[in-house]
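During the first year of the project, the team set up a workflow for recording each protein of interest as an amino acid sequence followed immediately by a discrete structure-token representation. This format lets reviewers and collaborators read both layers of information side by side without switching files. As required by the reporting guidelines, we include two representative entries from the current panel. The first entry is reproduced here exactly as it appears in our internal archive.
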Amino acid sequence: MVPAVSWRRLGAVAAVALGLELVYRFLRRRPPPVREVLFFPAPLVCAEPLLSPGTCCSCPLPHHTDGALSALLRRLLGARRSLELCIFTFSSPPLARTVLLLHGRGVRVRVITDSDYMAAAGSQIGELRKAGVVVRHSQSSGYMHHKFAVVDRSIVITGSMNWTQQAIQTNHENVLVTDDGACVSAYLEEFERLWEEYDPAGYCFFPKDDQNGP
């Protein structure tokens, strides 16, 4: 006959083994952390293989999906629920098409940009607005100089790079992609703060000194 103490020990060992098995299975299913650094300039490539898979494009650009720009597009195209975009100046057609594609899929897209540069030559902000993307802009004298995006409230894309053709093809730039929880929370908090600050309902179109008329 097995003593009661031995049964208890066997039960404890079995419980520990089961717990370890469950932890192991959980860790196997858990995706690896997102830690990616992209450097620019990047060679100009055709974005069609990523933006319109299966279509045939006859443009003279390379059609491979390697490189920093393609990696950035893939991260953005991975959005399923939301995209918060806070960008100083935005004139890159491939990136604009990506944002419009997400908007067309039903992803909630919100854009914050700088008031001075939103109307610069080549700016894509007007195209986004025409498509129904909600855009808010700065109202102060200082630049809204951020360059970051938050994908599905879980991945931050940030760095030195504006979303312009010059930045992508010519400048030395860096982009960091991470799902670190503390970083994601901080960027979301900053986005929501600016989103409220730049609410059109609070716009002041006339300086205080001019409100009383001549």
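The second entry, processed by the same pipeline in the following quarter, appears below.
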Amino acid sequence: MLHWNLNFIISAIAPLLIVILSIVVVLLAVAYATLAERKVMGSMQRRLGPNKVGIYGLLQPLADGGKLLLKETVIPSHANLGLFLLAPILTLIFSLLGWMIIPFNNTTVIFDTPLGILFVLAISSLGIYGVIFSGWAANSKYAFLGSLRSTAQMISYEVVLGLIILTVVFCLGDAPNINQIVISQKAIWYIIPLAPLGIMFFISALAETNRPPFDLPEAESELVAGYFTEHSAMPFAYFFLGEYSSILLISTLTVILFLGGWWTPLGFLLPGSLSSFILGLKVSFIFFTFIWVRATFPRWKYTQLIVICWTSLLPLTLGFITAVPSLLLTCV
């Protein structure tokens, strides 16, 4: 009986431990992604970047986290307290939930479901509520305008992202299971036949995550810091972690949808941790491209941001979502 109870306890605790370990790994990756961005930006701008805390500045993310942890949380007297504190927590939770269905290799995934892509789209849509709550609850004009901008931007580009993902699912010809999308790219990565869609997906990913040159909700010269202007200390850290977690998540989705996931260029499947390493290298390349774009292009006007979505990207995506299934049916 004792042996049976012990096995039952282990089987009940094991999934929880896996989830906690995955969250810790993602948060560490987010912390050092911020350091990588500061280092790469420094190199591109002919400066050193963080280099004082630890060897080559490797402990800088821990120092920044400690600073935010020890700071006093200042809450404006006119803010709606409940929603003001709930907004950053929602943003972080929804950004972490998306990692549940990401396959780190051909055998390791937290939650394997036939509708994994739909789960990601649903979670990303719910993440908008954190932005809306933060702008409204702060009772600040800057935060409110930033949340309105961000909401309009995210909803607009989610349409393009969803249609592009649907086109990739058409190529699969099966339920939108993320593992099957990766497996179907053994012979050829989708970035080769669907290169225009891959480029449009990357542009939409920049806008969806509020990254330069589409960082209009956080335009410092106009809106101070956008929807989290009034947040400080740990609530601000939650927004920060949620934003970079979303960037890494959409970089991983880009790799899974268009760059073959854990497959090597010649279609070889490496064992276990090596295939995860291949996936990590590809995600690092996409994240580096995010930084490269930030260092290269100036910020667009907000009207340009919306116009390019509804008059350029959306019509092109609708054209591809019609043409690709037609070509597939013709070839069959």
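For the second entry, the following points were noted during internal review. The chain has twelve helices and no strands. The mean pLDDT is 82. Both points are flagged for discussion at the upcoming steering committee meeting.
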